[in-house]
Amino acid sequence: MSQRYPKAITGTARAGVLLALLAIAVWTALAVRAEQADAADTTYHKWSLIAIEETKHKYPQASLVDYLHIGRTQLEGGLSEEKFKLWLRQADREFGVFVTVRFNDAEDRLISVAMSETPR
């Protein structure tokens, strides 16, 4: 003869199982999003280092306060551009610099680096 649990216990156990499944689903979704973010970061990482290095050459007395990856633009002929905004501090002045890194996608080869200070 099988023994049955009271309905209240069965309902509580069922809610616990559902809560555990929900927690597993959320944990999995967060892990997938983190992995996708890491993959996205690596696509422009090399070009961000070049942007920072070239900015250091142009502004050797400035220190880097912050930087922002603006985005990638696909150009014709297999070329792409990564755009960044770097915020610098030099003496008593803080200012922004837009840096555009142009490169050949297929060859992963640098073509040019262009910079311009922000108006404010």
Automatic annotation (TrEMBL):
It comes from the Bacteria. This is YqzG/YhdC family protein.
